[in-house]
Amino acid sequence: MSTDILIPDVGEGVTQATIVQWHKATGARVRAGEPLVDVMTDKVTVEIECPSDGVLAEILHQADEELKVGTVIGRIAT
What is the mean pLDDT of residues 16-34? Predict the structure, then answer.
């Protein structure tokens, strides 16, 4: 089973975000609530926390990619 990591909706009018930096590499053990990836919008930089315990199974998008809110950027294998 896996859990998707999404670009979050951070506010009204924000439709896109850019990945700044991943804090973990594929295959790394992760815990719910720990910082996983930073994304930046035109208004704010947001630290996305890991949604569940497991292993970072996939990173689908890398730093400097601009993506729509709601895009799946990675997956946690639980």
Answer: 97
